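Hey L., structure's done. Input below.
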Amino acid sequence: MKKTGLYLMFIGVFLLLTNHDAYARQADDSAVTTMDQVVVSVTQTETTTSGIGGNSVTVITAREIEERKAHTVLDLLKTVPGVFVTSTGGMGTSSSVFIRGADSKNTLVMLDGIILNDPSNANRSADIADINLDQVERIEVVRGAMSVMYGSNATSGVINIITKKGGRVPEITASMQGGSFGTWKTGGHASGAVNKLTYAVSGSYLTRDGFSIADKDNSRIPQGGNTDEEDGYENLTFSGNIGFEINENFTLSSTLRYVDSEVDLDDYAGGYSGDNIISTWVPDPDTGAWTNTLVPNPDGPTHKRSESDQLTGQIGINNWFANGWFESILSYKFSRNDRQAYDNDNLPWYDYTGESDEFSWQGNMNFDTHVLSLGAGYFNEAMESLSSGVADIDTYTLSYWLQDQLFVGENLVLIAGARLDDHQSFGRKTTFRIAPAYDLPSTGTRLKASFGTGFRSPSLFELFSEYGNPDLEPEKSRGWDLGVEQGFLDDRLTLGVTYWEMDFENRIGYDMLISRYNQLEGDTETRGVEVSAAWTPVKDLFFNINYTYTHTRDPEGNRLVRRPENQVGLTASYRFLEKWLLSMDARWVDERAASPYALDKEGNPVGTLDAYTLVNLSGSCDITDRFQIFARVENLFDEYYEEAFSYATPGLSGYIGLKWRLL
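Output:
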């Protein structure tokens, strides 16, 4: 990615050509956030948080996104109850999202309903390190098995990133910011309407010198110049939505997003990371015998990097019949992922290409007391990796689902559904889910529960690579939760507690004895408690705190790696003097089990990763109605921590930026 000047010029021209009025819709997002939020990820229909039944859902709103001034989607997910995020280094490096203690492969991640889980990834998990917050309107996190609506991979939860749509009030903003680690970002957003067509487009370019991925502050790994290299990152993102209203009963919509990124990498060998690690023969100091071993090579080349391109999009057709009684939703969604990496000698290291195409239809019949939905879909995924000996292979799944949203009076909501998936390789799989909720009229207490099953089909890599096993069966899961929510002080204070359990069967893992993927014997169990409290003491002051307890055990009774047993998240915001806004997000993370492959420089198992506390601050000032200055301080107390052993994390760092509207 060396065409920086061209990209910046393109963004500049884009901003000059799209000159409209802006900030008009920003003002009144300071209302109490306990009001109902629109949610689409639970039922694939628009409903509110009071109508989602017993499902556990967190919505990161447009207000929170604006207030916290975070860099990426991952930054915002880190304080969501029941969710834990890890990265192997700085911005843009490999990331994992764990929901309710399950593996990252059990989380389905979507952008406007487009599946981001990469078919070319070894276990078809989603790495969303490159997804920034350009044009993101809100993020919906649904916890619990959701295969009934989304099929494979949605076994522990779903994350749906919803982007901004155009409106009748025209809007354009431009921004630039810079800060620690040589970080610079510039971008712009424009939206509006022309007759019956609405649009929303954005573009940004980020460059970052970064810091060494290999942790220079970790005394348990080799140093001596082998953790000195700065590992940089670049990200170019374009995103757009277009809608067209043919008439009041017929609309078209489309989404397109393109991400081009490049991140510098370090070696990983011997149980730890380093700028350059090589295999060489060294003499034993006691016996004098020569042995082949891995040693740091601080004077060696450091060209290791990964380059990736991601293109996602969707086209939707919505029709309403019989005065809105019947809604028809027909859509086509696609995703294209291309990853190439080069080693320290600048030679090709690996290549992966993953593609997915989905055609689906859902019909919603709105009766007086319930909404009945019928759906069918065709999902095709393909991958190719010459470095792994995988030719162009693909497989498809046919899906059929039925769902009912039942509303009994004003107090009982019951959502139930069933699904049949017919996979080309392993055949049919049936899942179901039921999620009731009941509001006690006398106290305003909400009682909620859910029970559901899920599955994860083997990935193409697990089936057909040189390490693959074509006899693999799907992973299966079942889970339930039970919770209560209570409002106080005219709902300015809300409390919620949920207990949950999940069991996973037929987990797929790499079997060292046979050197290929295999079904693991026994069940993996996770269970825990999620506690949350949201408080708005006055209009412009808001607090949200949550605590998550997560107990995990694999079939051998061991804790699952990199998942804390306890974690606490806190967010707060305060608007004052009309133009000023301060926001804080903090989290405490308990110790975690390290990877069994993590070893120190003496070859000893690492065992556990230490607990840590992080505090981030952000603030903004609307200098005029067209001009805003903002800043963010991350890791305020310069806490030392690692999310994965030997991989560095940023210390105290700061960023400052400007945002304005163009006339």
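The chain is about 5% helix and 55% strand. The helical segments are 4-17, 62-68, 73-77, 147-150, 460-464.

-- N.
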